[in-house]
């Protein structure tokens, strides 16, 4: 397994240990099933949107070092989302990914959590519309950059 995979899996285990809870309670705190929470610790760590509840829980529990591990992995897994969010800030991390301004983190975390949970039909329709708008916006930004480059 890769160093990144090990780092994320170790952060999952460390978060549960710092919270001093068993895997069943940990799973409940994350909105996950017990088998899924156990799998994240022992087999395959969370990826993509599945990292959001870990980042939120670590942040809410005042473990910024662990929240940073989950947030960094989330940005690496979802670079288009990060790029769209960072367009206005213009800040780039050392790894070349756009950084999310500190005052916007709560909004980004809420947004990711919203997309991760199953919602009502109206909420699911809203998610679909937001994804379509994000796709259109990303395409427009790419066209504009291409136009400015030539």
Low-confidence stretches: none
| Strand segment tally | 0
Number of helices: 8
Radius of gyration (CA) equals: 17 Å
Major sheet characteristics: none
Strand content: under 5%
Order of SSEs, N→C? Answer: HHHHHHHH
Give the number of domains: 2
The pLDDT mean sits at: 80
Based on CA inertia axes, which overall geometry fits? globular
Structural class: mainly alpha
- Kindly, what is the distance between the CA atoms of the first and last residues, rounded to a whole number of angstroms? 43 Å
Helical amount: over 70%
Keywords, please?
mainly alpha, 71% helix, globular, 2 domains, 0% strand, 150 residues, single chain
Concise description?
The protein has 150 residues and is mainly α. The protein has helices spanning 3-19, 23-30, 34-42, 52-60, 64-77, 79-86, 105-116, 121-149.
Give a verbal description of the structure.
The protein folds into two domains: 115 residues, no CATH class; 32 residues. Helices cover 71% and strands 0% of the residues. It contains eight helices and no strands. Helix 4 runs antiparallel to helix 5 and helix 4 packs across helix 7.
């Amino acid at each position: 397994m890769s160093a990144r995979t090990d780092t994320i899996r170790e952060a999952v285990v460390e978060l549960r240990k710092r919270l001093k809870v068993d895997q069943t309670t940990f799973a409940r705190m994350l909105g996950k099933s017990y088998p899924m929470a156990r799998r994240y610790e022992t087999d395959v760590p969370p990826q993509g949107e599945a990292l959001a509840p870990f980042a939120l829980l670590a942040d809410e529990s005042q473990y910024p070092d662990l929240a940073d591990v989950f947030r960094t992995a989330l940005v690496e897994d979802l670079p288009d989302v990060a790029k769209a969010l960072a367009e206005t800030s213009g800040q780039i991390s050392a790894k070349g990914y756009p950084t999310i301004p500190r005052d916007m983190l709560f909004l980004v975390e809420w947004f990711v959590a919203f997309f991760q949970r199953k919602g009502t039909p109206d909420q699911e329709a809203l998610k679909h519309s937001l994804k379509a708008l994000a796709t259109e916006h990303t395409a427009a930004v790419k066209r504009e950059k291409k136009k400015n480059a030539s």
